[in-house]
Write a structure and sequence with these properties.
With 397 residues, the protein is α/β, with parallel strands linked by helices. It is 38% helix and 19% strand. Helix 10 crosses helix 11 and helix 11 crosses helix 13. Bound molecules: adenosine monophosphate.
Length: 397
């Protein structure tokens, strides 16, 4: 089965075509600047990356361009669009309505729309991608895979906030968690690599990318995670503040003469390691600047590692122990320095890092020594493959 995996943002659309039997990526790329001017990046499996500038007033034109590229007689990877058997859509917020992936129909679209006030930047954009594909790929089954679904197993004590219960009842104010597709994929993969039953492990997954979150997976179920109602809670991230005293929000807004939108913009886009360093949200820049003695870059890195370690500690408490700690995503897969600094706080759990193994990047590897009480692993995430697998599973149900 060939699955077209779509991850649609407000002005971009990332795609991959995956052959579900071999799990090979046949082609991948991105449409950028949709609604502005338009640019298609297309990379076939064994070919050169191509860049095409062409007008994309809406996502429908973007989807059409992707499909044209896929069946292009010279560089395409499909003979015809009939070779696309399913589309898997990344959908960000499924609220409490979706605890697993679903076959998309009009009722599902309405339910995702109803969750849009919880994810105003993401859900409408995701649905635009769904609509565009429905228009161009008539009759092809579409599956929605939610970032929040994996975390729907959290117990009430983990997901409720300490605010009036009526706000939960009336408005759905609670922790939902994100990166669920990645946390699920990585925790399962770790069990496979270790050849242990998934249902018997206590695993802590650190998804450390530009967006970052930690998840406690006990017996194959998410029981807590660091992101909340929105992806702003939890770790310090590339440009997001993570946890902060709610009173500081009002205090800063008054001092800076900002309204609610203004201060939320600061917390989402001008904070995190970027805001602290005043330099960059990219850990490659922070690493080189701190090596050159830049104090604020060093402070940003230190804060990031410290808070990650604190979350790991709290999730070890939540599960009364941990068998496995996994690092994944851009920083987690590539930055051995960050992994080492995070693990330096975890001696109390019996974590012992193998410094030689920790030099590895972007591959599946055990990072701890054989006598470490917790197995520390690098497991590269693959959200597209996870979406492809979900789509096949739902269609074959
Ligand atoms: P992601 O959101 O998972 O795509 O991660 C993107 C982030 O990963 C970038 O902003 C960088 O901070 C980080 N990153 C990517 N490559 C490296 C690297 N070689 N060393 C350190 N950090 C990296």
């Amino acid at each position: 089965m060939n699955v077209l995996v779509i991850n649609c943002g407000s002005s971009s659309l990332k795609y991959q075509v995956i052959d579900s039997e071999s799990e090979q990526v046949l082609a991948k790329g991105i449409c950028e600047r949709i609604g502005i001017d338009g640019r298609l990046v297309y990379q076939p499996k064994d070919g050169e990356k191509e860049l095409t500038n062409a007008p994309m007033p809406t996502h429908t034109e973007a989807v059409r361009m992707v499909l044209d590229a896929l069946v292009n007689p010279k560089t395409g990877v499909l003979k015809s669009l009939q070779e696309i058997d399913a589309v898997g859509h990344r959908l960000v917020h499924g609220g409490e309505k979706f605890s697993s992936s679903v076959l998309i129909d009009e009722d599902v679209i309405l339910a995702v729309e109803a969750c849009s006030d919880l994810a105003p930047l993401h859900n409408p954009a995701n649905l635009i991608g769904v609509r565009a594909c429905q228009e161009v790929l008539k009759g092809v089954p579409m599956v929605g895979v939610f970032d929040t679904a994996f975390h729907q197993t959290m117990p009430q004590k983990a997901y409720l906030y300490g605010v009036p219960y009526s706000y939960y009842e009336k408005y759905g104010v609670r922790k939902y968690g994100f990166h669920g597709t990645s946390h699920s994929y990585v925790s399962k993969r770790a069990a496979e690599i270790l050849n242990k039953p998934y249902e018997s492990l206590k695993t802590i997954v650190c998804h450390l990318g530009n967006g970052a979150s930690v998840c406690a997976v006990e017996n194959g179920k998410s029981i807590d995670t660091s992101m909340g109602l929105s992806p702003l809670e939890g770790l310090i991230m590339g440009t997001r503040s993570g946890d902060i005293d709610p009173s500081a929000v009002e205090f800063m807004a008054k001092k800076e003469n900002l309204d609610l939108d203004g201060i939320l913009n600061v917390l989402n886009k001008e904070s995190g390691v970027y805001g602290i360093s005043g330099l960059s949200s990219d850990f490659r820049d922070l690493d080189s600047a701190s090596q050159e003695g830049d104090e604020r870059a060093k402070a940003a890195r230190d804060m990031f590692c410290y808070r990650t370690a604190k979350y790991i500690g709290s999730y070890a408490a939540a599960m009364n122990g941990a068998d496995v700690i996994c690092f994944t995503a851009g920083v987690g897969e590539n930055d051995g320095g960050v992994r080492k600094d995070v693990c330096s706080y975890l001696g109390f759990l019996g974590v012992k890092l193998d410094e030689e193994a920790n030099k590895k990047r972007g591959e599946e590897v055990i990072l701890s020594t054989p006598d470490s009480k917790v197995t520390v692993m690098l497991v590269p995430t693959n959200e597209e493959l996870a979406i492809c697998r979900e789509a096949v599973a739902i269609i074959n149900q």
